[in-house]
Amino acid sequence: MKKIFTLLFMFGCLSIMAQQNDRLERIRAFKVAFITEKLDLTTKEAQGFWPIYNKYSEDSDKIRQAQREEYRQNVKRGEKLDDLADEVSEKFVASFLSAEEQQLQLKKKLVKDLKPIISSKKVWRLIRAEDEFKQKMIEEYKKRREKNKNEKE
Q1: Looking at residue 10, what is its pLDDT?
Q2: HSE on the CB side for 83, CA within 13 Å?
Q3: CA dihedral 95, 100, 105, 107 (to 10 degrees)
Q4: CA nearest to 30, candidates 18, 19, 22, 20
């Protein structure tokens, strides 16, 4: 019986992880389509643009992941911000500023690397498209949360 329960639990965990990966892949695909539409890249531009942009995205994700991991390691589940010790809060502020600086350096490198490949106008379109994409994702999240809330009532 324990073996059956353990197997069911493992399959459940794998299923949840697969769903999360599917969700992330759908978001990435939507982002690629969104940016492609906004930038209107030529075939030649796209060949140079996507490897650079994908590397940038990967590095940016690593910075955010490291910041989330540090937070998880230092904050107990359910703990409120007001309950954090000053030393922990100070550490998070320093970590946040460091991550922001890393993101800024990464963005500057992206712009520098893209300048020979696409025009400054398209670089600016990319920056705006990333902001628009984030807003769309936030709006979608709010809609889904509201829908789920209404279904529960």
Answers
A1: 45
A2: 7
A3: 140
A4: 22
Hey, what are 38's tokens? 């906004």
At 129 the pLDDT is 96
Report the C-alpha gap between 26 and 148 in whole angstroms: 20
Tally Cβ neighbours within 10 Å of residue 71: 13
User: The whole model's pTM is what?
Assistant: 0.76
Place of tokens 């697969």: 18
Range of the domain at 89: 41-152
pLDDT at 87 over 60: yes
Question: Quick one: tokens of 122?
Answer: 């398209």
Is residue 63 included in any domain, yes or no?
Answer: yes
Q: Tell me the angle at which helices 86-114 and 43-74 cross, rounded to the nearest 10 degrees.
A: 170
- Name the domain count of the chain: 1
- Provide long-range contacts, Cβ within 8 A and 24+ apart, for 125-131: 125/38, 125/39, 126/35, 126/38, 126/39, 126/53, 128/38, 129/34, 129/35, 129/38, 129/39, 130/35
